[in-house]
Write a structure and sequence with these properties.
Shape: globular
Structural class: alpha/beta
Number of strands: 10
Order of helices and strands: HEHEHEHEEHEHHEHHEHHHHEE
Distance between the termini: 41 Å
Helix content: 40-55%
Strand content: 5-15%
Strand order of the largest sheet: 3-2-1-4-7-6-8-5
Largest sheet: 8 strands, mixed
Radius of gyration: 22 Å
Length: 387
C-alpha cells in the first residue's frame, strides 16, 4: 500500500469514527429550543454579573437586553467596570435610566488586578462576591459577557431547564455574527470544532468526565459554585469557562447547548480579527505543550487537509478514500451550516478552514513564546512560566 493510499484510508477511518463514535457532536441536537420545560413551583432569585472593560460600544444594548427580561422572579444586574476609560459605566447607567430600571442595575468599580488572576476572572469574582454579600444572596448567578444580547425570554428558559433537571450549570453557546465573508468562512467551524472537542451530549452525561461551557452565557447555582471553590478556584485560567465547567461538574450535572436567544453583539469583521480571537486561547487549550502543539498540527492536517490533497492529486484507492473522507466531513458540517443559515457548499471548504485554524493555533504558541499570550483588552493573561 502506498503512502498516499494509507493516508487516504486513515482519513476516511477517522471520519467514520467521528460520525458514529463521538457522541453525535455534529448533529447539533443540544439546543435550548427543543423542549418545553414545565414551570417551577417557585421562581428562584437571580443576579446577573457582567464584567466589562472598555465596552461602551455594546454595553448599552447588552444591559437593556438584561433589564428587559420577562423573568417572573427576583432579578437584578451587577456590572463590574474593570477600569474602563471609554465611558462604559456611564453608557450602562444611561441604558438603565432609559428603561426606568436604574434601581435594578448596580455598577461596581473594579479594584486593581492582583497577581495570579486574569482580568475577566477578577472582575467576575468581585461581582459574585458583591451579589452574594448580605442577606440577599441569590439562588442563581447569570455570568454573561458585556457583548452578549439576550432575548427577553432567555433567563426564564435557562432557569426552567436548571430547575427541571437539577443542573448546577446551564450554559449557552451564543450565536456568533456571521455576516462578512471571513465570518461565514470561519465562525460556524469555530463552533463545529468546539463541539468536536467537547461533544455537548457527553458534557451532560454524569458518567463522563468531559465538561465544557460557553462563557458568554452561564447560569450557575450559587451554592454549587461555592462548593466548587468559587471563581477563585480558576483565577489564572485562560479558558475560564471550560475550567469552571470541570469544577462544577464534579459537584453535579451540567448542560451546554446552542441557542438563538443569546447573540454576540460585536462583529468579528475580518480574517485577522477572528484569528486573534482564536489565538488568544488556542495554546492554553494545549496546556502550553510543544508536543501537544505538534500533535494537534499533525492531527488537523491528517483529519481535514490530507483528504483534499489525496483527492486532488492522488489516484486509485487513495483518491477514492480521500474523496469519501472529504464528503463525509462536508456532510458532518451541514447541521451547523443550517443553524447559521449558510449554503451547504461551505462544507466543501472545511479542509481550507481547518488549515486556517491550524495556522491560528501555531500563531497562539508564537504569541505565548513572545510574552504576549492570552491578550485581552490590552493585557497579556498567560501566566508567567506557562510557556
Amino acid at each position: 500500500m502506498s503512502l498516499a493510499t494509507a493516508l487516504g484510508v486513515l482519513a476516511l477511518a477517522i471520519w467514520l469514527y467521528l460520525l458514529v463514535g463521538r457522541g453525535g457532536f455534529w448533529l447539533t441536537r443540544e439546543r435550548d429550543d427543543r423542549e418545553a420545560p414545565t414551570r417551577p413551583d417557585r421562581w428562584p432569585s437571580v443576579v446577573a454579573v457582567v464584567p466589562a472593560r472598555n465596552e461602551a460600544d455594546v454595553i448599552g444594548h447588552s444591559v437593556k437586553s438584561l433589564l428587559q427580561q420577562d423573568y417572573p422572579g427576583p432579578f437584578r444586574v451587577v456590572l463590574v467596570d474593570d477600569n474602563s476609560d471609554d465611558g462604559t459605566a456611564a453608557t450602562a447607567r444611561e441604558a438603565a435610566a432609559a428603561l426606568g430600571a436604574s434601581e435594578r442595575l448596580e455598577i461596581l468599580r473594579g479594584t486593581a488586578l492582583p497577581k495570579g488572576w486574569t482580568g475577566k476572572l477578577w472582575a467576575l469574582h468581585q461581582g459574585v462576591e458583591h451579589a452574594s454579600a448580605g442577606g440577599e444572596a441569590p439562588d442563581y448567578l447569570l455570568l454573561t459577557d458585556a457583548d452578549i444580547g439576550h432575548a427577553a425570554d432567555n433567563l426564564r428558559s435557562l432557569v426552567l431547564r436548571a430547575e427541571r433537571c437539577g443542573y448546577g450549570l446551564v450554559s449557552l453557546m451564543a450565536q456568533l455574527p456571521c455576516r462578512s465573508w471571513a465570518e461565514r468562512f470561519l465562525v460556524p467551524a469555530f463552533v463545529f470544532f468546539f463541539q468536536m472537542l467537547y461533544p455537548f451530549a457527553w458534557v451532560a452525561q454524569k458518567e463522563r468526565k468531559i465538561a465544557a461551557a460557553a462563557g458568554g452565557c452561564m447560569l450557575i447555582r450559587r451554592g454549587v459554585l461555592e462548593r466548587a471553590g468559587g471563581i477563585a478556584s480558576i483565577r489564572s485560567e485562560i479558558i475560564d469557562d471550560c475550567a469552571l465547567a470541570r469544577r462544577l461538574k464534579a459537584e453535579g450535572p451540567i448542560w451546554l447547548g446552542l441557542t438563538r436567544r443569546a447573540k454576540s453583539l460585536r462583529p468579528y469583521g475580518g480574517f485577522r480579527e477572528i484569528g486573534r480571537m482564536v489565538s488568544r486561547s488556542a495554546y492554553a487549550q494545549l496546556g502550553y505543550s510543544p508536543l501537544l502543539l505538534a500533535g494537534t498540527v499533525a492531527g488537523m492536517m491528517l483529519t481535514f487537509v490530507m483528504a483534499s490533497i489525496v483527492t486532488l492529486f492522488g489516484s486509485g484507492l487513495a483518491q477514492a478514500a480521500g474523496l469519501c473522507a472529504w464528503l463525509l466531513m462536508a456532510f458532518a458540517f451541514q447541521p451547523m451550516l443550517r443553524f447559521y443559515r449558510l449554503s451547504p457548499l461551505w462544507g466543501l471548504a472545511l479542509p481550507a478552514i481547518a488549515a486556517a485554524y491550524t495556522l491560528f493555533t501555531v500563531q497562539s504558541a508564537v504569541e505565548v513564546w513572545r510574552g504576549r499570550g492570552g491578550m485581552w483588552k490590552g493585557r497579556s493573561q498567560a501566566m508567567p512560566g506557562d510557556a
